[in-house]
Design brief:
0% strand, transmembrane helix, ABC-type transporter activity, ABC_2_transport, transmembrane, Nod_factor_ABC_transporter
C-alpha cells in the first residue's frame, strides 16, 4: 500500500514539475518581487535603519525568504484550482490511484519550486553583500525551518485551492501572508514600533521564525526563538493538513 502511494505521488509530482519546467516564469516571478523589495530596502531605506554591527542585507534576508515562500505557495492554490476546474482531479478519482497522492503531488511540487526560488534570492543577497557566520549544522537548521514553513503554507494553499470559486480567489489568500513580515522584526527591530503594533509583531509567527533564522545565519545562539518558530510551523502544518484532507474528502465523497 505504501509503495502504491509513493509511486502514484511520484508520477503525479513529475506531471506537475513538467508543467513548471515548461513555464519557468512561475519561479522567476516568485523570486522577482522579493528581490525587488530587498533591493529597495537595502539601497533606499537601509542607511536609515540601525541594525548594529550587522549589515542590513544580512538582517533583512530572513524576512525576504519568508516573503518568497509566501509568494510561491499562491501558485500551488492556482494550479490545484485549475486542475479542479479542468476536471483532471475528477478523472484521477476514477482511476486506481491513491487519493492522497493528488494533493501530495501539488505539495511536493510547491516544495521544489520554492526551494529553487529561495536559492535564487540567496544568490542575489550574496551579490549584495550578505555573509554568514553559520556552520554546516546551522545551515541545515535554517533549511529545516524553511522547509517546514513551506509545507505549512502550502497546505494552507491547498485549502484555498479546494475552496476558491475563482482563480483570483485561489491566489489572493497569499496576500495577508506576504504582508505579515512587514509587521514583524523582518525589516526593523520591534523595539522601534508603537506599543500595540509591537505587541502584535512580537507575538505573531513571523517574528520568531525570522529571529531564529537570523541568529542561525549569524552563528549566534538562538535561545527560545527556534522552539517557538518550530511550534508555530508545526502547529500551522498539522491544522492546515487536517483541514485540507477533510475538505478534499468531503468534496469527493
Amino acid at each position: 500500500m505504501t509503495t502504491h502511494v509513493l509511486g502514484d505521488t511520484a508520477a503525479l509530482t513529475g506531471r506537475s514539475l513538467r508543467h513548471i519546467t515548461r513555464s519557468p516564469d512561475t519561479i522567476i516571478t516568485t523570486a522577482v518581487t522579493p528581490i525587488a523589495i530587498m533591493l529597495l530596502f537595502v539601497f533606499v531605506f537601509g542607511g536609515a535603519i540601525d541594525t548594529g554591527a550587522e549589515s542590513y542585507v544580512s538582517y533583512l534576508l530572513p524576512g525576504i525568504l519568508l516573503i518568497t515562500i509566501a509568494s510561491g505557495v499562491a501558485y500551488t492554490s492556482v494550479r490545484l484550482f485549475n486542475d479542479l476546474q479542468g476536471g483532471i482531479v475528477e478523472r484521477f478519482q476514477s482511476m486506481p490511484i491513491a487519493r492522497a497522492s493528488v494533493l501530495w503531488s501539488h505539495v511536493l511540487t510547491s516544495l521544489v519550486a520554492n526551494v529553487t526560488a529561495v536559492l535564487i534570492v540567496v544568490a542575489v543577497a550574496l551579490l549584495m553583500g550578505f555573509r554568514s557566520g553559520a556552520n554546516a549544522f546551522e545551515w541545515l537548521a535554517v533549511a529545516g525551518i524553511l522547509i517546514l514553513f513551506t509545507l505549512a503554507l502550502t497546505w494552507l494553499a491547498v485549502i484555498a485551492g479546494l475552496s476558491a470559486n475563482s482563480v483570483d480567489g485561489a491566489g489572493a489568500f497569499a496576500y495577508p501572508l506576504i504582508f505579515l513580515p512587514f509587521v514583524s522584526s523582518a525589516f526593523v527591530p520591534t523595539e522601534s514600533m508603537p506599543g500595540p503594533v509591537r505587541a502584535f509583531a512580537d507575538n505573531q509567527p513571523v517574528t520568531s521564525i525570522v529571529n531564529a533564522i537570523r541568529n542561525l545565519l549569524a552563528g549566534q545562539a538562538v535561545g527560545s526563538d527556534i522552539w517557538v518558530a518550530l511550534g508555530w510551523c508545526a502547529g500551522i502544518l498539522v491544522l492546515s493538513y487536517g483541514a485540507a484532507i477533510a475538505i478534499y474528502r468531503r468534496k469527493f465523497a
